[in-house]
Amino acid sequence: MVRSRPLPVDPLAEAKRQWIAHGWSDAADGMAVVTSVMRAQQLLLARVDSALKPFALSFARYEVLRLLAFSRAGRLPLSSVVARLQVHATTVTSTADRLVRDGLIVREPHPHDGRAALLALTDEGRDLVERATTALNADVFAAPGISSADAAELVAIVARLRKGAGDFTEPRPLPEPL
User: Which GO terms describe its molecular function (predicted)?
Assistant: First the structure.
């Protein structure tokens, strides 16, 4: 939960001080990294949830819609959605069930694999994800709370952590700005 007033002291800095005081110096930096990233995730997710609330979307539902909207034909195999969102198939299936129920996507038979299904965006789903993206861009992504330089550094640091954890093999280079 986001506090209405800032605390007079950083509780994560205090936690690190306590870690060191209790003889866990070798783990103090790691504890500070993990808890800092987790707290930052809470803060950012609260902003995202607030921006998506008027659209009755969770971030998981938004991600599926956005991924389908980015695809050339507005449809992808369920297995591709699972791989690209890096979540368990059960989670995507459950999310897809709710999106189908709400008329935002449909399930279609895979044209080459009778065992597989395609998830396809409906016109209503496309309209909703475009409006939700406009809100997210305005309310969250355009001003994430840190400078552009800090944002680039943070993304690079987290990418190294993710790569080291086996999340991907090598990031593709970003296009140069025009």
Answer: DNA binding; DNA-binding transcription factor activity
The answer to whether the beta carbons of residues 69 and 121 sit under 8 Å apart is yes
In a domain, 167, yes or no: no
Q: Which residues pair with 121 in a beta bridge?
A: 105
pLDDT at 121: 97
Question: Residue 113's closest CA among 81, 76, 68, 72?
Answer: 76
Q: What is the pLDDT of residues 66-97, one digit of tens each?
A: 999 999 999 999 999 999 999 999 999 999 99
pLDDT of amino acid 117: 87
Q: Tell me how many domains the chain contains.
A: 2
* One domain, residues 63 and 115: yes
**Whole-prediction pTM value?**
0.86
